[in-house]
Protein 1
Amino acid sequence: MGKRKRKKGKDGEEESRQNTDSDNDSISSTSTAANKYEPFRVLNYTRSYPENGGNFEYIVFFESTDPGKPIGDRDMMGMSTSLKRYNKGVKQLVRINKYKIGVIFERASFANAALTNTKYLDSYKMKATIPAGATEVTGVISHVPINLSNQEIYDTISSTKHIVQIRRFMRRNKVDNDFQITPTLTVSITFSCPVLPESIDLNSWRFDVKPYIPPVKQCLRCLRYGHIGKFCKNSERCSVCGGNHNFKTCTIDTKDATCLHCQGRHIAISKECPVKYKN
Ligand SMILES: [Zn+2]
Ligand SMILES: [Zn+2]
Ligand SMILES: [Zn+2]
């Protein structure tokens, strides 16, 4: 937390994404004000399934820790045999993508045990995680005073549900040939429970908690929807003019941008783009 190194974004995006799972494609923290607004995550918190969590599936993601050998390239039958031999309660395996498989366990306790089965994980060069969506829920509150850091919000907040992360949304504006990050009045709160509380309390002010709707996945390399830059095989497109170059080398001013999706007067990653919501 706080010290996490992020690669500099390849392109501008107007609202930082939730930095969970592999979707941390591009959040820049080059701004000087960034520290105050770094996402605040509760220390020593690890996801686990509650023992009486109902009858949903207890899925655990497995990924390779050996960069030369993605899990999707391994022997599938050998993998299910070893998983079942060294872990209790394996019900089913599913391939998510080249880098990830999902293992469904019969019970919460079996899934939780698999996470800490370091002997097995180490010898097969794997790591195991519970996806955020399985045990957490994220909501947003609006009109949060701009001077409050994420840490201060956490220290002040009172809630009936356990909070694991606070993150103020940041806006990126292109200034000259660089991006400036400015805080917005919207803050997301992640709770370690399946249902959002209706409200939280901030120094006696009640804030309604609305569901967080994650931004549509958009590739910052080719600007298409549905995947992120890490997995992109297309050629690079410019978000300002749509040409085959990086936006940083573009000679056209942002205000004269032409969106490659709709030909509108905005950059191709803009929230104003009507095509964004059709995807
Ligand atoms: Zn792409
Ligand atoms: Zn361009
Ligand atoms: Zn557009």
Protein 2
Amino acid sequence: MPELPEIMNIASQMRECLVGKTIADITILQPKCLNTAVENYGKTHNRRIMDVEARGKWIVISLEEDLLLLVSLGMGADTVSYPPGSPPNTGKYQVRVQCGDGSGFTLRFWWFGHFHMVQKADLKDHLVGQLGPSPLADSFTPELLASILRTSRRKVKELITDQRRIAGIGNAYVHDILFLAGLNPLAQGSRLDGGATARLHSAMRELLQRVLSKRGLAYERDFFGNPGEYGREDFLVGYREGEPCPRCSTAIEKIRFGGQSSFLCPSCQPPVK
Ligand SMILES: [Zn+2]
């Protein structure tokens, strides 16, 4: 499932390819991925694409006159561009966006995704308008992280993957973030001291930046159909149950809580007393 690094990578490629172009047509073959009637997407016609950015696990495409297209790739998707003059994409897709110059892109959700449209003024009523800050934003300081952790008595793993508190971290990278920070996933977020909060802050940024520099996971594809370079061998403890911890060689454990698995080193991330 794509998380912040994959989405940032695709959004920046889309920005380079699409900004300045106008939308000529949108073809929708799976209306259940929409938040409004198919015919309303006619509003996008002849509007120029002004910007494309990542908001957590969503891609936000801003059009002229404050109209926004919001794309969630769900469990994964092929978001593939095609150049001007190429024949229409005949592959299986749910959504196709055609630009005025004949280029465009298609969305093929692996499982299920969203292709929503809202006016910017109504964004506050949409999930995207309620997302927490990006952990890679300049404004995401250790103080901001501390204030987010203080708001709840929930476990640190639940807190930092709650998209309304911090946007973009999910089950791919949370295990290695907590390992880098030396924190047990079951620790209560509001009880982390200043040192632990600072470690968590730098672990988030270091890990996500590392994945971003490798253009995302090896089994996800970018806007040009190329895979990322962050492979299984790059994971530290995530999905490595039974293998030695890269720091102390203790066997990595898998524990379950809240219906989900967590991977950790029991020595480097001791349980909280
Ligand atoms: Zn260890």
